[in-house]
User: Fold these one by one.
Assistant:
Number 1:
Amino acid sequence: MLKSISCFILIFSFAMSLNAQDLSKHQWKDRLILIIAEEKNEKFQQQLIELQNHQNGLDDRKLVVYQILPETFTTGFKEENWKNSNELFQKYKDEKSDFRVLLIGLDGGEKLEQTEILSAEKLFNTIDSMPMRQSEMRKNR
């Protein structure tokens, strides 16, 4: 009986971990922009538009956009493929604001955070000043 219970707990834990979103899969491959909001509000929509208007710059800098709401999240700009989970929201929400933008570098560290719309210019300047990005730019010349 104890073996059965242990086996069930192990299987249940594994299934739950598969459902959890793990951003570490991007480490050393992608930079991440997390747009976190309590709801799809005006700032949320404006931030998406700002980034969509600079898709080539996002691609060039290996940026993956995460849209994160309290119960769901998705990557990119499409309206489909939302996944049910509150883990990312709980981990990255700002206690003092209903909107937050976060840049996570290739190394998995938080590089920039703000609670106002992040301009593509500021985002790109921040990334382009990083040693890893400068190395990438030298290699691509």
Number 2:
Amino acid sequence: MDFALSSPTRLWSAAEVLTRPCPVPAAAGVYGWHFDEAPAPGLVAGQLLYVGIAPRHMSNRPSTQNLRKRVRYHFRGNAAGSTLRLTLGCLLGLELRRVGSGGRMTFGRAGEASLTEWMAEHAQVCWLEHEEPWTMESDLIAKLDVPLNLDQNRHNGFHATLSKIRSDARARARELPITS
């Protein structure tokens, strides 16, 4: 299964994923992100850099998330709701800001639009349906070299660098005024 994410037979662009009908199934599963341009020095373009699951395992309530919702959100959402977008924006040097009441952080309208454009140009995704994706997330992160994943990935050589970049961006955002 990890080979299907690291060396997929097909990758999908934002333009393809955001069309109707959407090719991404409204089902549970895992997804992998590839980039034709590395978002930071030290990362390799053209390789799998991030994996995610949908839905997350929630024992106290059912999740409404699925592959289609999650993948589409990563392509057009914001950093407050997408760890992938938060990571990419920080690596690309976008300014993280507190928004609304100050509890959420995004790159603001202009920054999120810039990130959406960058992803449309450079990001591609693949996926696999799986009824209980949370049962395989740890194993995938342990087996694959996915430097943009932080959770459960301390063994990765890029972990400390990415952690510092994101931590510094959050610290700077806390010093700046809240934006609308």
Number 3:
Amino acid sequence: MLTLGVDLAAANMRTAMAAVEWLPDRAIVRDLVLDVSDARIVEASEHADKVGLDCPLGWPEPFVALVQAHRFGHVTDTDADGAQWRRHLAYRLTDEVVREETSIIPLSVAADRIAHAAFRCVGLLAMLAAAGHNVDRCGGGRIVEVYPAAALCRWGLAYRGYKGRGQNVQHADLVTALREAAPWLELGAFEGLCRRSHDAFDSVIAALNARAAAIGKAVQPSDEQRTVARVEGWIALPTGPLSDLIDGAEGMSGGD
């Protein structure tokens, strides 16, 4: 099995992509690149069994409905001063599930800068669909939405403070912690890049998260949640430890 992890930024710069090959007793990082274009992601996806995209695949349904109603002047029932009303506009169903499961509050695709990456993702998903990939926003096809911070949390690794100006955890140390927690993961010649770039590191985590989704070791939407998740997207939150990724192949599920 080959999984692809993409840490998607708004532009090619800061977009990272990792390819991980899965063997019975180990996983090998076969490629790790920065400044990746949409075309390169689509081409690499042709060879992958599962592609983990670190980016929201859709917007909250109430937010979309509000924008549509506002466009035509049909907004009649709002609670602009209500925090709960605004929260429903800002966060997707899957964001709330991640919050309940991990206490991590995902960035809002409706009210935060991550929307710029999501704008790009719309075009990327269209390109992937045109290339023949099953773009099921629930993750049932080749493409699945992942969230490295939540995956790291589930795997007992530091998930805050390793990127940005307020960095208080060196992501180079996080690479060391990952290698100790997953001795079966071979970074090879790409270890230095992982230690230098948190974008590269996140793309490797996205590829590991994609493996969890591919083998049935990630949270899936219930039948009731699936209708909304098919529109808003669904984060494939791992359900168990890192060792599941090697030991749990019996739960393997398909892609396209």
Number 4:
Amino acid sequence: MLTVGVDLAAEPAKTAVAWIDWSPEGASVRRLALGADDTLILEALREAEKAGIDCPFGWPEPFVAFVTAHQAGDVADPHEFAGRDGRRRLALRTTDIFTHDRTDLMPLSVAADRIGHTAMRCAGLLAQLARDGQSVDRSGAGAVAEVYPAASLKRWGLPSRGYKRARNVDSLRESVDVLLTAAPWLSLGEYDDLCRRSDDAFDAVIAAMTARAVSRGLVEPLPEEHASVARSEGWIALPATSIDALHG
């Protein structure tokens, strides 16, 4: 089985893609690329049996409705979204709140943070994938699933914070060591050093591993009451087992 992980950024320079081959003997990183443009990402997504993308797949439904009404000059109650609680309803998706409740980690707001630039790029990639005939379901039921590497790491009992940015490269190296200790069946091969130098590359590997969890049904089930909104806003796949279950 081949899974792909994409640590998406607004521009190719900070975008990483990982390909992981899975077999009864173990899992090995076949390829790990930094500076990935749309052509390379789509090539990888088409090849994968399941892919995970670290980026919001959609925007909060209340935010979309609010902007649409504002554009038409038809916001019924200007006070409805006033204050912190009101803005929170606009800024956060259902899956963001669900993820926070279960992991104590809060994803970036696609409506009120710079991650929105990345989500615009992601929307274009998903649209092209659908035009190519791939099954695209923002809830994760299709060819791709939305993932959140920090949440995956935390669910697997691994360090999930403090390894981002160049100043934390020592923590990144430690995170790689902890991952390989927890998953001795995983081989980074020639890309071991790249994972220790680039948190983007490391997150792409975690995204590909999370895609494996999704493909095997080893993630939190999507609550029925959130199924409809998940197909619109996107849904973060949260691992529900130990990391060993990926290879078992």
